[in-house]
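Preliminary data (for renewal application), NAP complex.
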Amino acid sequence: MDGTGLARRIIESSTAAAADLRRRTGTAPCLATVLVGEDPASVTYVRMKRARCEKSGITSRHVALPASISTSGLIEAVTDLSQDAGVHGILLQHPVGAHIDERAAFEAIAPDKDVDGVTMHSFAAMGFGLPGFVSCTPGGIMRLLEEYDVDLAGKHAVVVGRSAILGKPAGMLLLGRDATVTYCHSRTTNLSAIVREADILLAAVGRPRFITGADIKPGAVVIDAGYNPGNVGDVDFETARNRASLITPVPGGVGPMTIAVLLAQTLEAASRQLGTS
Ligand code: NAP
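Predicted structure:
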């Protein structure tokens, strides 16, 4: 499954929508990024996201805060952006530092600007199947499955991993599309036997080549969300590709979809706030 190609098409359509929005309203969509401290990986992620936005006609407002900032200081900065009519989406890069109440900081993001899908409001809306912004990587996975016309109804989807930003919401979205969902995690016993029953397998573990072809049901659809050092996924692609009917490569599968969904959701937020959708 070609995530690079699909992400490119989504970004192209977001770029066209951004230009159209600007023409109609005189305002460019704006994504605010908030970075606490100078963790090198976070600095790189934020820089990449901002560059991608700028290329697509989405302006970005960057708020760099010292690592020493308090929870209330961070909440104040995020609240300011939530109340700023010139900002349409907010991305608070995490981790924000162990001394900060990360959940409280996320909750300062106004739901209509939560384009990264990190607030309890967004999570609950997803759980209820109501409109709202979804966590970007699970959102990207669902778009890939739609693009390849994968029939989910009644299929056994096994999600390995249950993090709040990836495994858990992805399973909920699959359930929302009528899959029968099983979650596996570090305390799951007999993981191989469960994985072998998967019609749809989502690997979101963070362990290189954790799942091999031997454990994949012939004909299964395999989504590898893992991204480990050396550009290696959670699935052993070479052995898995012979068993799967569809499989995402790493890199070039799920990875590029995350930023594409972030852009698309920023556009959606801006269109709603500017009254054009
Ligand atoms: P995470 O927060 O570390 O969660 C990992 C999950 O895997 C946890 O639920 C953990 O179970 C489970 N797990 C760990 N060891 C296991 C084992 N031996 N057997 C079964 N389950 C096990 O990681 P994450 O943030 O969800 O990310 C997972 C992977 O996706 C990483 O490789 C990450 O880089 C990648 N990722 C990619 C994107 C992208 O492509 N844009 C975005 C986000 C993440 P417990 O809950 O029991 O601890």
